[in-house]
Here is the input.
Amino acid sequence: MLRTVRAKFLGVAAFFVVWLVVATGFSVIQSLGINGDLEAVSRYVTPVKDAISDVRARQLEQISLIDRYMRVVENDGPSAPLLNGLEIEITAKQTQIEQAFRKAFTFAALGRAQASDHFDKGVLLDLDVRMREFADVSAQFSLGVERLLGRVGDGDLIDAQRQENMVRGLHRQIVLDLRNEILLLEKYAADTVENVSLREDFLIQAEFIMMLAAVVIGVSLAYYMAHAVVRAVQMITNALNSVQSGKLDASLDFKGKGDFARLAEAFNRMTRELRVRFRMRERFGKYVDPKVVNNLIAQETALETSEKRVMTVSVVNLTGFDWLAEHTAPEKLVDFLNDYLTAMTEPIAGHSGIIDNFVGDRVIGFWGAPFCGENAHAGHACQAALEQVARFNALKTKYADLIGDHGLDIRIGIATGEVVVGSIGTDKSRSYTVVGDCVNYANRLEKANRVYGTRILASNETAKMASADVEMRDLDHVVLLGTEQVVYLYEVLAQGGQLSEERRDWRRKYETAMALYRDGSFDQARPLYEEVVAFDDSDFAAQLMMNRMERLQRREQDREWNGTWVVRDPYERRDVES
Here is the structure.
């Protein structure tokens, strides 16, 4: 049984080769038979017939000369001068007859030797023998003619008359026998030509039938094999599409032990392994972000390597959680914490971010390639932070009886910079995470919210990259204790284009006041800060700026004012940095 596709195609090819050989052999055999019949007729039968016809014609001419000869004898006597010429002509005709008989015998003998299949049966059977017999009779005729001529020369006209009658009797017998033989040979030739014509017609019909059968069989086999292959390919394609769409229970079932059966076995083995991997990924995804799992699976080297990348890191912290943990039943606390962590993590995942880890009630996430675009990670982080604030506001409503007036809120710090990302840890325990100054910067920004009374603070790098995605305000510039580095603080306010005209005017006044503040024009900045506070009395940042201006006017900064507040004592560092 042919099991492989190649063997099947080779089997079909072998079948057609055998079919072609058989058809060709049949055609050659038939053609050889036809050629043999035509050759027997043209090379042997026709020359014999022509030679016999020549004998008959010479016989008729000879008897005509004999008739003339005898009339001369009767009219002019045996000594007539014309008789010598007639005798010469009669003798010449006899010589021609003998030559024609030898020619007929020769071709008949050659036919028996070369075309025995034709000369050993039917009309041609013993043709050479009959030609010899005809020659013998002709010899008797010739002997009678010689006697006739001799009697005339001796003057014995009575005996000459008897010889003439005998010669005429032999002539009639010879001519009649020759005529019958010629008719037989002509009929044989005609029958052979007709038979050849019929065989040619049969050969043409047979070749057409064999060609038609080859076409029908070839088309049928091609259709059957093509249909089988196309059906198998369609089944495989459908199964692959099912796997691609997530239906890992797809399977293939081909009977037998051929190529497609082995392919089905390999496919089914693959889907079984994929189902195992999917279950592992599904379970592992509860502990590690699924996008990280997918990336590690797609890039196996990521399991062992780390690299430097520019990414955005977000740190979310729940303020007042310690009080809540002390005054809430464990069951309710767990329910609240689960809802809280869900509200904080889903926006990160929904905006192409990676959940790094949980530290108590703190949630740390990061954004960057290959999980999102090279220049989109800051915008994704800011949008996720706004959604986290909105979700927490809804959560406070849901747990209002539990939270009460105890000031639970979230603070978010977002920083963009170079980090080391990858698989970090010991040989026995590793984690896919980010480390670096950017992570520390995000932590400090989260804590700085407490100083400015804000909920979302972003670094300068984040603000530059996300300016087209979210609305921000330039909050402050400070130099931290013990460093010369200027820290730019930006408050994330709303999604891009979703800030009302009143809020835009409020932001413009604050940023104008900040510009005057940094120029040292405190008297001009103060009225603007007051307008900002009048619009939003919860804007602690504006009040903080007015307090600083008072301190600056009291010369508490022992240097020339350059627009950047310098943290000088631990208390200020705790307020701004811790």
User: Anything to note?
Assistant: The domain at 305-499+562-576 is CATH 3.30.70.1230 (Alpha-Beta Plaits). The longest helix spans residues 157-244.
